[in-house]
Amino acid sequence: MSQRPKLSFCERRAIVPHREFVALGRNEDAIPTDSKTPNLDNVQGDVYFMFPKKWEQFLFFKITDTAQFRKDLDKYAPHITSSRRTAQDLLDIHTYGGAHKDIVSSGIAFARAGLNLLDINRKLGDPHFDKGSLFLEKKELGDMAQYDPVFDGDGKSHGVILLTAREQKTCQEKMNEIKTIFSNSIEVVTVYEGRVRVGDGEHFGWRDGISQPAMDCKWGIPKPGQHVVKPGVIIMGYPGDPVYDDPRRPARPSFTKDGTFMVFRKLEQNVLFFEDYVNKNWPSIPAQPETGVQLNTEQRKLLFGARLVGRFKSGVPLARSPYIEDPINLRPERINNFDYTETNGGCPFAAHIRKTEPRNLEPIVDKNYLDASVIIRAGLPYGAEISAQEREQWKKMTEDQKENAVCDRGLLFVCYQSSIDNGFFRQTTGFANNDFFPITGLAPKKIGQDPIIGGPQPRQQSSGQTDISQEGHVTLEVINRAGVKFEVTGVAQKLDTSATTVVEKFFVTSHGGEYYFVPSISTVKAWAGAN
Q: At what angle do helices 271-281 and 388-395 cross, to 10 degrees?
């Protein structure tokens, strides 16, 4: 077993700026005017590089006075952090360390209702954003729980302001300054606060943010195995943007260039129920999974959890370490450098990373389709760590109480993409919540939902007898209690009802979210000046 490698800041980070390009001015002769590269000075900084942060606040607001809001927006605009500034901040942290400076970054985004109120009524070329709030698609997303008030209805927020800092106190003070700027033009609906946990992990304990894509442009240098896509998959107005690439579609408004769509969701995590699930089901992992491999109890527990995610908690991928975690695979040239064809690779098809970041599905699924599906994930955890008192109280609860427990911790999910339809919505409904994805052949095979972010779907369940004798495609005619006949078409799969069967459970509950447009910095300034 190799030693865990000591990695620098940029070696641990999935997306790293290209130092020489960041140092260039946008209008230098080295960068041609017809460049297909997004403008570093115009794209908001969290969109691709992601703000450096320990703490982050999201201020959700409603506009109460549009004329005054535009004036206040003009005062706020200098606070918006560009991608060049964010890239330079990241390089400074790599060079000098992160403790020398409390870096503050900020950005703004608008919901469809907010744009309408500002008399910006043109469609932006995405069916989900143009329809209205994420709330309208609650059922399609599989969200069964009550949404938080800020998201529980169409148009409950007009926009959101992001602010990050190294210190919690700084984050609060700077957000108060922004509240003062907009004090006469907005109503603060609510503020969510998140923090980075030790080791960059989410509350289940896994290191997060490893499988980020890289843009095929001068902004950075892709790492081995990283999913490289055209810039327009993330940022509007460039090759890879599905509207830009398709001359048959109505063009987006010119102000959308260098902008993107942001999806926000509040995802509650039932951590103790997840831990119970692992502790209950780890014996399904054999002590000797193959000849020459012997696992002790702790290794079997770790492996069971890793098979739900596709990685061990450290980030070591199962595709490279199928049974026992080998820290050598944390090296940047190895941690993402796999395509699931590795000898003895052991990542289940239903594992979280294989569902949401599928690889090597050709010729069944076209590579361009998968490229168009990637997103930049920039969220962070919220809520306190589990206390000893909470663990003691947990022991007294029934199984039903545990499964339905209310837990004030989870993930403030944020993602960026030029197309919500291709990105977030496809990943959620077509990948994670789709029992039959990833597709591995011409005949559909039920794999199950994403065990981490999947959720129970409403089902019309019944029981009866038929003469099915083998698995495969079936068409059944059934009659309901009212005498109405239905035709049911699908795939028959024999159920394993043995005592060792691992029953699928769900640990993440969505409490709502919203679709936002993140305008370029020049667009924000133009809107601010349109009084």
A: 60
